[in-house]
Amino acid sequence: MQRLSFWQDYRSFVSVGALAGAALLLESTLTRLLAVAQYYHFAFLVVSLALLGFGASGSILTLMPRLLVSNPDAGDEAIDRLLAYSGVGFAVSVILAYGVVNLLPFDSYSIAWDRKQVFLFILYYLSLAIPFVCAGLGIGGALAVQRGRSHLVYAANLLGSGVGVILAPMALWLAGVPGAVLLSIVVGLLGTLSSKFKWGKAGRTSLLIGLIAATGGIAVLSVANLSGHAALGMAISPYKGLAYARQYPGAIRLYGRWNAISRLDVMARAGTRQLPGLSYTYPGIPPEQYGLSVDADSLQAISLVSPEDFTAGKFLPEALAFILRPAARTLVLEPGSGLGVLQALAGGGQEVIAVNSNPLIPEVISRTAPGFDIYHYAQVRNTVEATRAFLERDTGLYHVIFLPLTDAYRPVTSGAYSLSESYTLTVEGFAAMLTRLAPDGLLVTSRWLQTPPSEEVRLIATLVEALEARNVLHPQEALVAYRGLQMITALVKPDGWSTTELTAIRKFLEDRRYDLVWAPEVDMGETNRYNRLPDSVYYQAINDLFSAKNREEFYASFPYRISPPRDDRPFFFHFFTWKQTPELLAALGHTWQPFGGSGYFVLFALLILVTIFSGVLILVPLLIRRCSRAANSVNLLHHQPTIRKKQGLRVLAYFSCLGLAFLFVEIPLIQRFILILGHPTYAFTVVVLALLSFSGLGSLLVRAAWLPRRAALILLVVLALLTPWAVMNLSDALLGWEIPWRALAAVIGLAPLAILMGLPFPLGLTWLEGDAPDLVAWAWAVNGCASVIASVLAAILALSYGFTLVLLLGAIAYSLAVLVLPGQGDKAYTTQVGGL
């Protein structure tokens, strides 16, 4: 086969990069699409299905080697054809998959009792994987054919993926999910046109028409989105809040807009009546409200009332904080649609600082309710920043810090919402709030009541440990908690409560008919007076917490996981323990929740599913090849070297370790950097960009004569082991910086590790190219399939044991790969016919 120089052959590398970029752009877009259309469970599936598609492409290439070579002298022509057709296949399959997602009547709520839904779910999953199979065919084929230059192909793959990661948030902000989907098609078709394959006139004309149509669609969608009139562009689950609101008689959509991190819709006449925790003693009528939906989920209320006329504010549970601290300088964290800000102003707040992590929310309220734009009152200063970053950077002190309840009620019994990270609701998060309190300042927050007690007990436990972290010796003296029928509200005063304040608290609760749950020297007879339950279960749970001699044993004795979340495991909503298993299995299919209430078990079901798929994709090609060789007594791959069984296991072990290691490092880093960068989308973009781009640069160094390869791999293991410590210290150091500098520092900080992470895979390909080039495609399949398993397993392990453990397992996987990789001169292969 004629060898061309890199510069002569650049079009193939551009084509590979474009395919990889299109795949990453689609992957990023699908996480947003499925989070809006269904629930976060589906967004979590995207990583696994993308990697499964790449694994499947390697298996196809192993089974069908003639996709790569039509004859010994035509290798370049064959791969050009494969790259070109892969781009077209990617574009067509994206359109078909988008249609399937929007037209398939899949119902996650009825899957436990409707067997048809299981089939629809598998079809749903596999249809979304097909575009990644197409992209993987082109990339994997180039890796297999470009012998001696596979490291350049791998670099093009990673660098192109990095470009795709950058394009995703830009496309989402500009044109929303439909526009980002079209852009992935455009990038894929550009990869097709970049290849050296000679299209006929009709073929090239068709490609250009497709490009022009998709580009025009992006332009139209961009205009609609930026003007606030973006159509949703997808079918959403009928159980989501926006779907309910749209069915309300006379409901109209006032505004619809995408940005990089969310989809916002404002609905009028949608029956919105939300004043969480409103006392039943309130004699008035709730104000007119619009409904604000974020990602098509439950509506938050935009109240069309001025603070002066908001009489209901004095009958909400958090009003007590403003009675105790009139004319307070107030900090309201993540107020969303602005109800918390309205409460602060109605309570007499003279200066209110609102901190929103989503910049689009204040803009949407200003556009849809200009006469009641709570964020533009003279007393209000709105800051767009993540809560933890603001608390670290800000130097002000506040009389009241208010963390309002803006998320919808979610039952915790099944662990159905476990995967949602919240760095605000951790011990470190509440401790950061306490540092910003002025002397005698108050922290007020509310959570939903659960039966039996769980969420509210975790809240109190987290506040207790945050107080202890701030050197409060008797946290039980600093806490007051009270409830209505649905919510519990906690007031925290680190300096301790005076007798006068406790009297005022009891007077407020009596007037508003709220039940005391905890206060210094509370008597059980004071609890459960107005909103009566069979027992004072919430008082008893909190009293047991304070009276426990060993707090860890108390946490372990509880039927749910209520130990306080920390930054290394920031899953406030993960309440599942294995003690729940009998209860969960008994209720399976009898609760109105996604996947029949299976909740946390969905992760294990997915792990089993992808492990089976991966096993099939890895083993079936080898079994078919063995049977074919036995029948024909020849090697299907034109007598290329084949591996002995022992060395075949070495290939399997090495590339499996790499797949596990990369994802065990990447996924917890993304989740950990949410704290530093403020949002999952930003963390995904920065971390994946840094890891892929610098790994691509690292892969270019593989064949450098000066590179001590074995030493570099050992250094990789050392850096991976140090990563948990480095990230923890980096978080503390960077949170006070502006976000552009945080992002830049994150990229620079990850660069050394990422460069070294780019070495092992092309080193393995170099190993194979010299002895068994026919196994390159299979190695691509093994790596992809191991990555699929790792993506799910990393999430399960992080939930139960934290990010540090997963990162350390990644380092161990890399160390095992180093041990498996043959040293220089290690002859692992033979030209004998036979083997696996």
What does this structure look like?
It is built from 25 helices and twelve strands. With 836 residues, the protein is of the alpha/beta class. It folds into three domains: 236 residues, Growth Hormone, Chain: A, CATH 1.20.1250; 249 residues, 3-Layer(aba) Sandwich (Rossmann fold); 237 residues, no CATH class. The chain has an eight-stranded mixed beta sheet, with helices on both faces. A four-stranded antiparallel beta sheet has the order 1-2-3-4. Helix 9 links the parallel strand 5 and strand 6. Helix 5 packs across helix 20 and helix 12 packs across helix 13. The longest helix has 45 residues. It starts with 9 loop residues before the first helix and ends in a 16-residue tail after the last helix.
Which CATH architecture of the largest domain?
3-Layer(aba) Sandwich
DSSP helix fraction: 55-70%
Number of E-state strands: 12
Number of domains: 3
Q: Taking strands numbered 1, 2, ... along the chain, how are they ordered across the largest sheet? A: 7-6-5-8-9-11-10-12
Outline the biggest β-sheet: 8 strands, mixed
CATH class of the largest domain: Alpha Beta
Secondary structure tally, helices: 25
The backbone outline, from C-alpha atoms, is globular
What fraction of residues sit in β-strands? 5-15%
Detail the poorly predicted runs: 1-8, 633-643, 824-836
Which structural class should the secondary elements be placed in? alpha/beta
Radius of gyration: 29 Å
Termini separation:
27 Å
